[in-house]
Write a structure and sequence with these properties.
- It is a single chain.
- The protein is mainly alpha-helical and 224 residues long.
- The protein has 2 domains: 46 residues, Orthogonal Bundle (Arc Repressor Mutant, subunit A), CATH 1.10.10; 148 residues, Tetracycline Repressor, domain 2.
- It has 10 helices and no strands.
- The radius of gyration is 20 Å and the shape is globular.
- It starts with 16 loop residues before the first helix and ends in a 5-residue tail after the last helix.
Length: 224
């Protein structure tokens, strides 16, 4: 995809050096802000940290979605590539579980991507990426069914539910137990098995960590 291409004006000419420098600064700050704070991060805060006026940010990115596309186009492509790589793995169950694990890992690394993987917007770039991911889900599910190790009633849509559930798990445990999602995913995958369960890779969260995660979720509520 083209998120990192050199920007041009509406006439197709390259940006002036100072304009390109401002755009690059906005993208650098936005990339970190979205990853740390999610897609609802303050655009005014991004502009301030980038050392530009908010009007300058809007000249380069008239809508939040335009800035999101510049940041997340390549990251969504990484999700698609993970599915394409999974289809080259000879073992169908390893391909199935590996694809889900990689998606959840990408979610855990970037709060904005974590948000974006559970949402669609009225724009082609998100709709297309989600559809490509769903198609890859269907293919890895079909291979695992043929292999006989995936329960026959699992569908590609069930994998979307895994992404949705991990969006919340990752959000809740980000600071208190950042690897808890691996345990949750392993539990989920054991539920998908046609034969038996296997040992989990992570211990359960401590009671204090659960309380901390619940408190953090409470503090995130906007009451007014």
């Amino acid at each position: 995809m083209t998120a990192e291409r050199t920007a041009t004006t509406e006439t197709g000419r390259p940006l002036r050096r100072d304009a390109q420098r401002n755009r690059d600064a906005i993208l650098a700050v936005a990339r970190t802000a979205f990853a740390e704070q999610g897609i609802n991060t303050s655009l005014e805060g991004i502009a301030r940290q980038a050392g530009v006026a908010i009007g300058t940010l809007y000249r380069h990115f008239p809508r939040r979605l335009d800035l999101m596309q510049a940041i997340f186009d390549g990251k969504l492509e990484s999700c698609v590539e993970a599915g394409e790589r999974a289809l080259t793995v000879p073992d169908a169950w390893e391909a199935f579980t590996g694809f889900l694990e990689r998606l959840c890992e990408l979610q855990a690394q970037d709060r904005g991507l974590n948000d974006l993987l559970s949402m669609t917007f009225s724009c082609d770039w998100t709709i297309d990426a989600h559809e490509r991911i769903r198609e890859l889900f269907a293919k890895v599910v079909a291979r695992a069914h043929e292999d006989g190790r995936l329960r026959t009633d699992v569908t590609a849509e069930d994998l979307v539910l895994v992404v949705w559930s991990h969006t919340r798990v990752i959000e809740a445990t980000r600071t208190s137990a950042p690897h808890a999602w691996r345990r949750h995913l392993a539990l989920t995958l054991d539920g998908f098995r046609a034969d038996r369960a296997h040992p989990l890779p992570e211990p359960p969260m401590a009671a204090a960590a659960v309380r901390e995660a619940m408190a953090a979720l409470g503090e995130s509520v906007v009451w007014r």
